[in-house]
Design brief:
Elements: H1 4-7, H2 11-23, H3 40-51, H4 57-64, E1 77-80, H5 87-94, E2 98-103, H6 106-116, H7 121-142, E3 144-147, E4 150-153, E5 156-164, E6 171-173, E7 179-183, E8 186-191, E9 196-201, E10 219-220, E11 223-225, E12 232-234, H8 235-242, E13 246-256, E14 259-264, H9 267-280, H10 299-303, H11 315-329, H12 333-348, E15 356-357, E16 362-363, E17 377-381, H13 391-409, E18 414-415, E19 423-427, E20 440-445, H14 455-470, H15 499-516, E21 517-529, H16 532-544, E22 547-555, E23 572-580, H17 581-584
Parallel strand pairs: 1-2, 1-20, 2-19, 18-19, 20-21
Antiparallel strand pairs: 3-4, 5-6, 5-13, 5-17, 7-8, 8-9, 10-11, 11-12, 13-14, 15-16, 21-23, 22-23
The structure holds S-adenosylmethionine (SAM) and zinc ion (2 copies).
Length: 585
């Protein structure tokens, strides 16, 4: 009798579960963002369906929905040669298998390691509170804002970017909207002419209650319209001519009685920021000074004049990140390492390219679209606490995640070599993987999907934050960037990586993984792309690596974020189930 994955994989129901998990991810996905990760329930379903026979569907469903450690896979070895943040490993471990995870990127490796390594949660919690205690006086100073005669702590600041009009030279504030924060049916909004914030019914077009002006966007898509002379131009062009866009602080969000309010930024607020500018001069020059590589995912911000990770922060963001990093650096052991990861996540919510939605009144990760986007307006959060993305919020998510993993995985021993530990995590290109033949029972993997997501450029951002805190402990962080350019398998013509490069590397990696499989072992992978060309490349890599596709299951993951698919063509996702051609004959 064959396995479920070969004959009766319930792909429709599994797709439905995966979609729902994309909206509401498993707790360990909140440890740290890693672009392009798939839901845990999908991996769990693929692993279970590869272990269980077709007569065991009832057991499949029961175990799919379990969230504690079970031992269906006991004594078996699982391999994912493109592990990323380690989703597949968590699920394979919780099914009792021994796991081997490979990824070329040191940041991916560190996220997976942090997810799995056993730690004393109470100690991490205490360390986080001690860090906050030390940084709080600075935060209280820099985030103070005045409401009437009262001083309160700001939750967030609203900034608008500016360029010089290419026609008349006047400064243009790139307002794409004037709505800042919605409270039920009403919205806090800003009038740039009167420099006031007002609360009004949310409508498509807003009218300033003071000057009576209908507030029209100055900027939409790639364009701006100069309010002075009416000239319509391209923002990137204006930036090319007059340099990196400027920025202006115009509003502040704070909380009263549990409800968010917004006020216009006043002189007092500007003075707080000027103080941060003075302090920023004392932040050592080498802090976060990592060059942004030129590639598909960075080309946009590079064209706006950015060169280094450090330039993606305003003065106050830089000062706060540095203050946190300094205090975390004084800690030891796993507390330092896990808090470094929380800080790296805070950094991604604390840049001048941090988008926000006025409806949710909170920021998004700067890389939510898997790119360095240029934002015409950004939200600067209180980096220490009480807002999404702030350090203490991230720590809370981290502790919750670790708790969940402890419950589902038990005690993992994480090793950086292939030995008897139940988790082996290696940073290396999968093309160079060397495992003994006949040593792996199952491969389930989610390889780089052609040019969909380019991890290294985004991982470099996190690498810049993590490196000073980790390089003493881990050789993986002693290098110059998160991974070598030549080693990452991806389609990125900007970096000179064509379809041939991608196919050859993938072929080699697949062949290495296949060589380690036991004769009855399955090689299962997920792939997603909207272009047939990418599927052809993948199929030829599998065939050349000696793997034969014995079954293909469609997946419907429609809300999986995929920025490159800006065109309306829907990406096709599928599971390819393979065996070694030699074992079939
Ligand atoms: C689609 S992602 C996998 C995401 C993963 N399933 C997760 O849960 O995070 C593909 C991964 O392949 C890695 N990768 C790219 N080239 C590689 C190579 N040559 N060897 C090993 N890993 C590589 C990337 O760093 C990325 O983490
Ligand atoms: Zn003009
Ligand atoms: Zn007005």
């Amino acid at each position: 009798m064959g396995k479920i994955i070969e004959s009766c994989f319930p792909y429709r129901e599994v797709s439905r579960l995966a979609r729902s998990e994309l909206r509401n991810p498993r707790p360990y996905h909140h440890i740290h963002p890693w672009p392009g990760r798939l839901p845990g329930v999908l991996f769990r379903a693929l692993i279970l369906a590869s272990l269980l026979k077709e007569g065991e569907l009832d057991r499949f469903w029961r175990l799919l929905k379990t969230v504690k450690k079970v031992d269906v896979g006991r004594g078996m070895v699982f391999l994912d040669p493109f592990t990323g943040s380690g989703t597949s490993l968590v699920e394979a471990l919780s099914l009792g298998m021994r796991v081997i995870g490979i990824d070329v990127n040191s940041v991916a490796w560190f996220i997976a390691r942090s997810t799995l390594v056993p730690v004393r949660l109470l100690e991490v919690r205490k360390a986080a509170l001690a860090v906050a205690e030390k940084v709080r006086p600075l935060a209280e100073r820099l985030y103070a804002t005045r409401v009437g005669t009262r001083v309160v702590e700001a939750r967030a600041f609203f900034w608008v970017r500016t360029v010089h009009c290419e026609n008349c030279g006047s400064e243009v504030q790139l307002f794409k909207t004037y709505k800042l924060a919605r409270i039920r049916s009403r919205v806090w909004a800003y009038c740039p002419r009167c420099r006031v914030v007002f609360l009004t019914e949310d409508a498509r077009e807003l009218v300033c209650p003071r000057c009576g002006e209908t507030l029209k966007s100055v900027s939409w898509g790639r364009f701006y319209r100069c309010p002075k002379c009416g000239h319509v131009g391209v923002v990137a062009e204006a930036a090319r001519k007059s340099g990196r866009p400027g920025m202006e602080l115009f509003a502040v969000m704070y909380r009263v009685g549990g409800e968010d309010r917004v006020k216009a930024a006043d002189d007092w607020d500007l003075e707080r920021y000027r103080e941060a500018e003075r302090l920023a001069k004392e932040v050592p020059e080498e802090f976060l000074r990592l060059e942004l590589r030129y590639g598909e995912e960075t080309s946009r911000v590079l064209s706006y004049g950015y060169r280094y990770v450090r330039e993606l922060f305003n003065a106050r963001q830089l000062v706060m990140l540095y203050a946190l990093a300094e205090v975390i650096a004084e800690l030891n052991g796993e507390a330092r390492r896990l808090l470094a990861l929380a800080l790296s996540k805070t950094a991604a919510f604390s840049t001048v390219i941090t988008p926000y939605t006025y409806v949710a009144r909170k920021p998004e990760s700067s890389f939510a679209l898997h790119q360095y986007m240029f934002e015409k307006m950004y939200m600067e959060i209180n980096a220490l606490e009480s807002v999404r993305g702030s350090f203490l919020n991230n720590v809370a998510h981290l502790l919750k995640a670790k708790h969940y993993v402890r419950k589902t995985v038990g005690c993992a021993r994480v090793s950086t070599s292939i030995d008897n530990a139940n988790v082996s995590l290696l940073v290396q290109p999968a093309q160079e993987l060397k495992l003994s033949p006949n040593s792996v029972d199952l491969v389930v993997t989610d390889p780089p999907h052609f040019g969909n997501v380019i991890n290294s450029g985004i991982a470099d951002f996190h690498f810049a934050v993590l490196k000073p805190l980790l390089e003493e402990d881990f050789a993986e962080f002693r290098r110059e960037s998160s991974c070598e350019d030549e080693e990452e398998l991806v389609f990125d013509p900007i970096r000179g990586k064509d379809a041939g490069f991608y196919r050859q590397g993938l072929t080699k990696a697949f062949a290495r993984a296949a060589a380690a499989l036991k004769p009855e072992g399955l090689f299962v992978q997920v792939f997603r792309h909207r272009e047939e060309k990418a599927w052809d490349v993948l199929r030829s890599a599998l065939a050349e690596a000696g793997l034969e596709i014995i079954k293909e299951w469609p997946l419907d993951l429609e809300n999986y974020p995929q920025p490159q698919a800006r065109s309306r063509v829907k990406a096709r996702s599928a599971v390819l189930v393979c065996r070694r051609a030699a074992d079939i004959r």
